[in-house]
User: Fold this.
Amino acid sequence: MQKIRFLIILLLAVPFTRGECQQSPTLYPGAVPMTAADENSSRAREQYASFRYLTRESYEKVRAYYVKENREPRSEDIDGESRTAFFSYLRRMPDDAGVYVIKMGGRSRVPNRIFTTLDNLAGAGIIPPEQAKEAEQKYGYLAGCYFAMGKDERENVLTMDEVIYRKYEGKMGMASSAETVNQEQVLEKVQELMNSGRMQEGMELMKKFTEQQIAQTQVALSPEVLDIWIECLEEIAAHAYTVMIHVTL
Assistant:
């Protein structure tokens, strides 16, 4: 009976013992936190904490850094352009603690929204179809990239690809849900002015609102719209990261 109890205790203890590498993972130099919460977690270094950092360095360079610090990855998956390597620093149940180095595993929906818009414009004869295709071929990789968090003009916390997209939506006259609410508020204000007998003010506000809507529609349906969307994609690319470092402690 005592022998059985000893074996059970031994088996329970094994997953929680450290392997050959005794040190905790260090942060890859120059990597930036994906969110404020990730930055706080990395400072606290609490047990079972999980945080994510981003870098524009190559997957191979980041991988080599952790191979040198730790050893060859415990597992590594390759799927097309995507790569995932896991470096185990602590054997435990249910999952090891360590570092995931992930390349092109992002899930940005913004690029495809823009490509769909360009395809529709090409179908309507507003821009050349080959230019819409060239944009998709050049910037298609952005769909697999990662983006840090930021704030839009209304202080909404979003990933930077979404922040930039919303900014250009405004230039195009493409109403987001927040802008739709704003339009409704303008119309309510017009109705309020009319009902209170301030007819002239109400008519001037309505005229200004209508002129703005027409101007935005003209921009959205002009050949120049391609240049604006390319500018948007360029700005998104400037904020894109190809590698994420996910640390679990």
